[in-house]
Amino acid sequence: MVVCYLAHCLLNANAKVDEGARCAGISVPVLRMLRERGATIRQMPCPELAFGGTRRFWAVREQYDTPAYRAHCRRLAEPVAAQVRADLAAGARVVIIGIDGSPSMGVELTAADDTWGGRPDKPHDEDYPVTPGAGLFIETLRGLLGESVKAVHAVGIGQDLFDYDEERELAKLGRVVAGEAERGAR
Amino acid sequence: MRGDGRSRRVAVVPDAYLNPAAGAPDRLAELAGAGWGVVALPQPGLAPDLEKAALAAVADQLAAFLDDGYEVALAEPDDPAAQRLDELLAAAGRRIGAGVAP
Fold it and tell me: Which of A87, A118, B24, B68 could cross-link B20 (Cys pair, CB 3.0–4.6 Å)?
């Protein structure tokens, strides 16, 4: 069995910032891909939604990286980590699906820039400062998983990237989920 | 810039919507077709303290939607986890409706 922990917004684009949603609500191509592969679906919380609300501006890691936001991420990530550990203990393969380019949910790519702050006049698209690294929630979740993190496959879908290529990203996700399903069947 | 594509409609759904039993209708796909986003309730069988923490996270997120006037509805109001969520939100002075007709 493969259990996929999805970034909240993949099932609820209402959690995205204004102009950040790539669909009205549920990402149908992602859902279809997971259904085709027989994955169990779990939804992670959106740390930015509960912290900044629906009217928040887009931001980079440095703007969220405060003790209060890290504590908030930890409070949300603790039950997720406990569920991941329980799934692993039950013999499941676990895949965490984040959002590459996100300051919170990025897995391989986040958004970071020391100069962001003050008047919110930064463009969201081609100048969005994507950098290698994880977002704050994913970083916190990985830390809470401790040794169990080695048994978890984390992958990001690049919905927060300017050059998002849905076909390419879905193919990447599909390979990861199928690969974990294959390992679980051995 | 893509404009604001958010539907502003959020359905609170049980785990059975995310993971339907074999042969059961795919309610999640139906909601997707109608433009709803979903917030999933904790799956059955969690330890009480774990479910409590997960429900608290759900309530925090729903409060953000409710406070900004989004349509929020319980897909299965009789679900036990939905009822516990309803109590949690009521204690915080918030109510959500029932029913997710397209």
Answer: B24
| Rounded Cα gap, residues A32 and A46, in angstroms | 22
Q: CA nearest A80 in B: which residue?
A: B54
Q: How far is A114 from chain B (nearest CA, A)?
A: 23
User: Is A117 a domain residue?
Assistant: no
Distance CA A183, CA A177 (A): 10
Pairing of strands B71-74, B97-98: parallel
Residue B72: inside a domain: yes
Q: What is the ipTM of this complex?
A: 0.94
Whether residue A41 and residue B70 make contact (CB cut-off 8 A), yes or no, is no
Nearest chain A Cα distance for residue B10, angstroms: 7
Residue among B46, B50, B61 with most chain A CBs within 10 A, to mutate: B61
Range of the domain at A131: 2-93+125-149+166-185
pLDDT at residue B2 in the model:
66
* Residue B64 domain-assigned (yes or no): yes
- Domain-embedded: residue B2: no
pLDDT at B28 over 60: yes
Any domain includes A25: yes
* The dihedral sign for the CA sequence B78, B84, B87, B89: negative
| φ/ψ (deg, to 5) at A165 | -120, 100
| Number of structural domains chain B divides into | 1
pLDDT in tens, A65-103: 999 999 999 999 999 999 999 999 999 999 999 999 999
